[in-house]
Design goal:
The structure holds 3 protein chains of 3 kinds. By secondary structure, chain A is of the alpha+beta class. Helices cover 31% and strands 24% of the residues of chain A. In chain A, helix 10 packs antiparallel against helix 12, helix 15 packs across helix 17 and helix 16 packs antiparallel against helix 17. Chain A is globular and about 75 Å long. In chain A, 56% of the residues are buried. Chain B is mostly helical. Helix content of chain B is 71%, strand content 0%. In chain B, helix 8 runs parallel beside helix 9. The longest helix of chain B has 37 residues. The radius of gyration of chain B is 23 Å and the shape is elongated. By secondary structure, chain C is mainly α. Chain C is built from 13 helices and 2 strands; from the N terminus they run H-H-H-H-H-H-H-E-E-H-H-H-H-H-H. In chain C, a hairpin with a 2-residue loop joins strand 1 and strand 2. The chains are: A alpha+beta, B mainly alpha, C mainly alpha. At the B-C interface, helix 3, helix 4, helix 5, helix 6 and helix 8 of B face helix 1, helix 6, helix 7, helix 8 and helix 10 of C.
Chain lengths: 527, 293, 326
């Protein structure tokens, strides 16, 4: 009898369920550019993962579309002294499995982060500064650091919280299968097929209020043409990273709308200064070796920067989806200096400077760059070579896939290297430290300084700024450090990338600086 | 009946097909254009100093912003004159396609014949190496060679030869296996003719026809494989585009209506391959001993 | 026959070992996976931790011997990128590629051989010439270009077919296939045609050449003289004669279709193993590359084995194993 009842109930549900959902399910499909490598939020510190997983999980601190830190699972946070931070947590938040969120979940999550097996790039860096954690009450938590660590809130914005029970025993596979994919975020996990698609449904009990969609499908469309074709043919309603080739057409087509925002990624050139005497791929025009490394001379570096027509690159190569750069982050970000403007295009001035530096006839160099990493990277390299030929420098171009390129660039195989850098902390101090401080990996200085630029004055300014807790004071110090670096042309900034989204008619996207593609920012608009 | 020289007879047999003659004429024009590219092009598209990015993506016939001279077939995203780029690209594509096919064919022929004729461990070795080769994706080979050797025309030819030789070796071996069992080879062996003579004079000519079919197709395939590698960023230096690289670069502008960047190089590529094949089809019919009436 | 099979098995094991060694050396030569995997913002400690976690801190020779030891116990390693057993990742994606390859091959054979026969039997008719001209177009245009043009015409302009992805699938003997549903067929049509085009043209040309040759052979002339109907002459004698080179090429091409569906798969966002391979190569995800090649080599070896057996059945003059003639 009980059995019969159960069957009847099942039949009833089966009959009613479609009726309920027939109340027009609001669903949307979004075309993503890069593969999502895991649903485990602590397995791979990779921008596409972090962006997608923000639908399911949340960090203590969120970022608003402009990159500013705003309350997430923490309602407030403040430094108590140089080494102590207090975080107040949000009450009445429930995980997708119904369990309540509290400080224990935070502690367990941070404990799991450095210990994810086989992680190719963990988030350990973010929680490592914390040497001691104290749970004051279920909604108050205190972190202690060994040295003053001003970027702690920004770091913790990158770590997504999962329930304690899951943090203690779930493996990466359990997240991928959905079993452990439990967060507090606005959407719940439904399906993950690597390299193909991710499906989610709305979390109706979300503390942050109602979301615009009932069901989300993210499709991985890595090939740019395939992505645009999917949008044009209606397979998806929005795509990220619109190829520049299609921007002109889409912006004039009334059936589509574009959204864009300048990002925290700068495209720049590192000049090889490993050695005083020699530098790879730089010779006199007749192919003979030079007697010294010209990149060691600040005048040569400045000339190489002046000889680039940044406006033409932004306009012609990037279809206006780039902003000429004079430092490492766009003006609106923390620690940027208003005094630093993109250098004016001046081939004659560049020639003069080169002559002063002892190269009246210029020299020859090869521009090396990747061809599948940054937007139009190989085209930018070619355009730079064109401008150099007008300033008396003979430039060849060699581009290669990033799998080959970055290993060789790190080894110092190239002289003139086109690179890019996204400052995830949105604070210029950290980019100066990674890209331009003298190489000292043990101290975390100059970790990605592939040019081996070294300037003791700059090192000192960066280090001091790093340990200054007062935001106002620190900002001034970072600005000063940036001016030191840029006035010495420590590297050659080209432009800031502008990320783009295209939506079909009836949809509008409000863009973000961090290049994240979030369904909550995609809204239906009245036709 | 007049006795013709073999050459004259060959020429007259070839000329029987008007289509083949037409193909030959087109091919001749293309070869001349390729050879004379530096003298007839309005611009040297490989010299970055002559390009102007401010003239990029101009439609066919639009004038340059600086010199007011028109670009007859438009420009690409670097301001490269498409007409000049096609002339130069033709040169590279033809040399890459033909050189890699000829070298791969020669290697494949030698190895395939040896495998079939000598059999035993040599056969096993060659065929297993061919198996390895055929299952190794062209892209991975190209990437490894790129990492070790760097970019360039010679390197792309090396990559294409590496990719293709096994194909010929297998095809040759399978035809040769059949031929080897035939009476004329056995007769030659009975006559104690030298082995090189048997292989070269008897086996080779009879294995050639299917090979020529494959080879002519493969010239085309080599050219489009080169384009595909370029499309994946593994081909020629981006500043010295072949026809394939031009198509690959222009390909991204197809959806946005700037058709000329990949359309005209596509037409040039098509003309090249069609004419090669028209000529090759007729050559094969004329040369094939088994088609002699 | 048995000896032949055993010898082949031994050789195949050798091939697999050489193959894995080549991939190890090759990936090592290309670059360091850590450069691509580790977030550039990470510090030195994190880099070291990642290299230990992935086993990349050990000398390359040791990495290889560890791999070999594990491979013998059936473990081909875990993907650096996905942390999923490489073989599972591949087997999840392989059915989609096999289906695409098989449909493409069927298309190529079903269209290519009849067209080639027509062109061979009537080489001087406009139809024969037209077929040959068409076949040239088929293989002279790069696959990626043709693929995009197909999408432009059939998806964007006409809106008849979806631009990419795999449609609805149903389970057939436990394997998801899409050719049994209308939605699946709609998704399958363009990528399969795109992939088939080159093989189709090749088959047309091979069939034509074989047919023309066969018609000149004495036994065909004899059969005709005996008054056999043209259907029988073509069906039995001509087809049989042209099958050998065609079987070779089909064997080769089926393998290459599987291995090289990369371009088609990425243009049409077809979730197959080709796309997985190109992504893995770009990311230097060595375990996946190695496992992928092991799988394709095994498929190749099986196909070649079958092809060699087919030879001996089709043409009794071929002796298996190529035993020396003297």
């Amino acid at each position: 009898m009980l059995h019969l009842l159960r069957i009847a109930a099942t039949v009833l549900i089966a009959l009613v369920a479609p009726l309920a959902s027939a109340a027009k399910e609001r669903e949307v499909a979004i075309g993503l550019q890069a593969a999502i490598t895991s649903i485990d939020p602590h397995y791979h510190n990779l921008s596409p993962n972090n962006s997608l997983l923000l639908h399911i999980y949340e960090p203590l601190i969120n970022r608003d579309p402009g990159g500013k830190l705003v309350p997430g699972l923490a309602t407030s946070w403040k430094p108590i002294d140089d080494l102590t931070w207090e975080f107040k947590l949000r009450r009445n938040v429930k995980f997708h499995d119904g369990s309540p969120f509290s400080a224990d979940d935070v502690v367990a999550t941070y404990k799991r982060v450095p210990n994810v097996p086989n992680s190719p790039s963990s988030m350990a860096t973010f929680v490592k500064p914390i040497v001691e954690t104290k749970v004051v009450d279920p909604y108050t938590i205190v972190f202690k650091t060994a040295v003053p660590h001003v970027l702690l809130p920004s770091d913790l914005a990158g770590v997504y919280i999962i329930p304690k029970a899951i943090a203690e025993k779930a493996a990466t596979e359990d997240f991928n299968s959905g079993k452990a994919a439990i967060g507090t975020g606005p959407y719940k996990f439904v399906e993950y097929i690597p390299n193909q698609r991710i499906v989610m449904k709305a979390n109706y009990g979300y503390w942050g209020g109602e979301e615009p969609w009932d069901k989300l499908t993210f499709k991985i469309l890595s090939n740019p043409a395939a992505r645009v074709a999917a949008l044009l043919s209606g397979d998806v309603q929005m795509i990220e990273t619109v190829p520049t080739a299609d921007i002109a057409k889409l912006s004039t087509d009334r059936n589509f709308a574009l959204a864009d925002k300048v990002t925290n990624r700068v495209i720049y050139v590192h000049l090889n200064q490993w050695n005083d005497k020699t530098v790879p791929f730089v010779t006199a025009k007749d192919g003979k070796a030079l007697d010294r490394n010209p990149f060691k001379d600040a005048r040569v570096r400045k000339a190489l920067s002046m000889a680039i027509n940044r406006d033409a690159i932004a306009d012609r190569v990037m279809e206006k989806k780039a902003v000429p750069a004079g430092q490492l982050l766009p003006d609106s970000f923390f620690g940027t200096s208003r005094k630093l403007k993109p250098l004016k295009y001046d081939p004659e001035g560049a020639k003069k400077l080169l002559a002063q530096a002892g190269y009246p006839n210029g020299f020859a160099l090869t521009i090396h760059g990747p061809n599948n990493r940054y937007i139009n990277d190989d085209k930018i390299a070619q355009a730079i070579a064109q401008f150099y030929s007008r300033a008396g420098i003979e430039a060849k171009v060699e581009t290669m896939p990033s799998s080959v390129y970055f290993t060789r660039a790190t080894k110092g195989d190239f002289g003139y290297m086109l690179l890019g850098w996204g400052t995830e902390s949105n604070e210029q101090g950290s980019s100066l430290r990674s890209l331009l401080a003298t190489n000292d990996p043990a101290k975390g200085m100059g970790v990605t300084n592939r040019g081996h630029y070294s300037n003791p004055v700059l090192d000192k300014q960066i280090t001091e700024a790093l340990y200054t807790m007062d935001d106002k004071k620190r900002e001034g110090m970072i600005q000063q450090a940036a001016e030191t670096a840029m006035n010495d042309t420590a590297l050659i900034p080209i432009h800031y990338e502008v990320s783009t989204w295209a939506t079909a008619k009836g949809f509008r996207y409000s863009a973000r600086t961090d290049q994240y593609t979030l369904a909550r920012d995609l809204r239906p608009v009245a036709r | 009946m007049r006795v013709d020289s073999p050459w004259r007879r060959f020429a007259s047999e070839f000329a029987e097909s008007r289509l083949a003659l037409f193909g030959l004429a087109v091919l001749a024009v293309l070869v001349v254009v390729a050879l004379a590219a530096p003298f007839i092009s309005p611009q040297n598209p490989y010299d970055l100093a002559q390009l102007d990015v401010l003239d990029s993506k101009l439609a066919p016939g639009e004038p340059s912003s600086s010199t007011a001279k028109p670009y007859w077939l438009g420009t690409d995203d670097q301001g490269r004159d498409m007409l000049s780029a096609i002339f130069y690209g033709l040169r590279i594509s033809l040399s890459v396609g033909v050189a890699s096919t000829v070298i791969a064919l020669a290697i494949g022929l030698v190895l395939g014949l040896s495998a079939a004729y000598f059999g035993g461990w040599l056969d096993a070795l060659i065929m297993r190496v061919a198996d390895i080769q055929l299952s190794f994706p062209a892209i991975l080979i190209a990437l490894i060679l790129l990492a070790i050797l760097g970019q360039g025309v010679g390197k792309i030819i090396a990559a294409l030869v590496t990719v293709q030789w096994a194909y010929y070796a297998r095809t040759v071996r399978s035809s040769a296996l059949v031929e080897r069992q035939k009476e004329y080879v056995e007769a030659a062996q009975v006559l104690a003719l030298s082995q090189p003579r048997i292989v070269l004079r008897h086996l080779l000519p009879n294995c050639l026809p299917p090979l020529i079919v494959v080879a002519t197709v493969q010239v085309a395939h080599a050219i489009s494989l080169e384009a595909t590698l370029s499309f994946l960023g593994l081909g020629l230096p981006i500043t010295e585009p072949s026809l394939g690289l031009l198509i690959a670069n222009g390909f991204q502008y197809l959806l946005s209506g700037k058709y000329w960047i990949s359309f005209y190089p596509g037409v040039a590529l098509l003309a090249t391959i069609v004419s090669i094949n028209l000529v090759a089809d007729q050559l094969r019919d004329v040369l094939n001993p088994r088609l002699k009436k | 026959m048995l000896a032949f099979t055993i010898r082949r098995l031994g050789q195949s094991a050798f091939v697999l070992a050489v193959m894995s060694l080549l991939v190890f050396a090759g990936v090592y030569a290309i670059g360091n996976p850590l450069e691509l995997l580790v977030n550039p913002q990470a510090d030195e400690i994190e880099r070291v931790r990642a290299s230990v976690a992935l086993g990349l801190d050990k000398p390359i020779v040791e990495q290889y011997t560890t791999f070999l030891a594990n491979a013998f116990s059936g473990d081909l390693g875990r993907s650096f990128v996905y942390n999923i057993p490489a073989i599972q990742l591949i087997l999840d994606k392989l059915p989609a590629t096999l289906e695409l390859a098989a449909v493409a091959m069927v298309l190529a054979i079903a269209i290519g051989i009849p067209l080639g026969l027509i062109a061979g039997l009537k080489p001087h008719s406009w139809l024969g010439r037209g077929i040959m001209a068409g076949s040239i177009v088929g293989f002279s245009l790069p696959t990626f270009w043709v693929g995009l043009v197909l999408i432009m015409v059939f998806s964007v302009q006409l809106g008849w077919l979806p631009a990419g992805g795999r449609g609805e699938t149903v389970l057939l003997a436990g394997i998801p296939v899409s050719f049994l549903t209308a939605d699946g067929l709609a998704h399958l049509a363009m990528p399969a045609l795109n992939l088939a085009l080159f093989k189709l043209s090749l088959l047309v040309r091979l069939t034509r050449a074989g047919t023309r040759e066969a018609l000149m052979q004495d036994y065909v002339k004899f059969a005709r003289a005996k008054g056999l109907g043209p259907g029988r002459v073509i069906g039995v004698h001509v087809l049989k004669n042209i099958l050998i080179p065609i079987v070779t090429v089909i064997g080769l091409e089926l393998g290459s279709v599987i291995a090289f569906a990369i371009v088609t798969e990425s243009i049409f966002a077809w979730p197959g193993s080709g796309k997985l391979l190109i992504d893995s190569i770009n990311q230097l995800d060595r375990p996946v590359i190695v496992a992928y090649l092991m799988v394709t080599v095994t498929i190749f070896i099986v196909i070649n084995f079958v092809v060699d057996i087919l030879y001996s059945l089709l043409d009794p003059r071929v002796r298996l194993g190529g035993a020396a003639a003297h």
